[in-house]
Specification:
Blueprint lengths: L1 H24 L7 E12 L3 E6 L5 E9 L2 E6 L12 E3 L4 E6 L7 E7 L5 E11 L14 H40 L1
Antiparallel strand pairs: 1-8, 2-7, 3-6, 3-8, 4-5, 4-7
């Protein structure tokens, strides 16, 4: 009877260990993220592989180096980002994650760099669409570069108009005062 219980216990512990190993290999991804693409590839030491991102909205790039060490560089200014020219980066030895904001211009350039410490690196990158709605502590979209630029132009033009009106007013007032002074003296 004790041998039977011992076998059941061993089978139960083995099942728990297998379950723990399987769940640790899978990444915990929020429910709000939708998987768009999975890209796998190889890259030589000191070389780049380039991808182009056309999807709109907030995008999460999650890259795992399967062998070696691949690094991630992202830019909305160039389609060929590098360690010299990039806007976002992740250069860890493990999992690399970059969150591409919705305001980045499309297409976004993605550069995957094979670190020279390994002759060849293998990677797997998952591309997610992030549907989470951010709560802004200072109101809706507390900083939007396009809106800020438009508001600055509007406020500058309104300010210029008021200065022009003041200038005309003072010019007329000074002219009248000069006329009065000429008549009196």
């Amino acid at each position: 009877m004790a041998a039977c219980w011992r076998r059941i216990l061993v089978v139960f512990v083995a099942a728990q260990v297998l379950f723990a190993v399987n769940t640790s290999e899978e990444e915990d991804v929020p429910e709000e993220w939708i998987l768009l693409h999975v890209v796998q590839g190889q890259i030589g030491a000191g070389n780049y592989s380039y991808l182009r991102l056309n999807h709109e909205g907030k995008i999460v790039l999650q890259m795992r180096s399967l062998k070696g060490d691949a690094d991630l560089y992202v830019s909305d200014m160039t389609l060929h980002p590098s360690f010299d020219e990039y806007e976002l980066q992740s250069v860890t030895c493990g999992q690399d994650v970059v969150r591409v904001p919705a305001h980045f211009r499309r297409p976004v350039g993605i550069g995957i760099y094979g670190h020279p410490s390994h002759l060849e690196s293998e990677f797997e990158m998952k591309v997610y669409y992030d549907r989470t709605v951010e709560q802004y502590p200072f109101g809706e979209a507390s900083y939007n570069p396009e809106e800020m630029e438009a508001n600055q132009k509007y406020s500058q033009s309104a300010e210029d108009e008021s200065q022009d009106e003041e200038s005309v007013f003072w010019t007329i007032l000074i002219g009248i005062l000069k006329l009065i002074l000429e008549i009196l003296f």
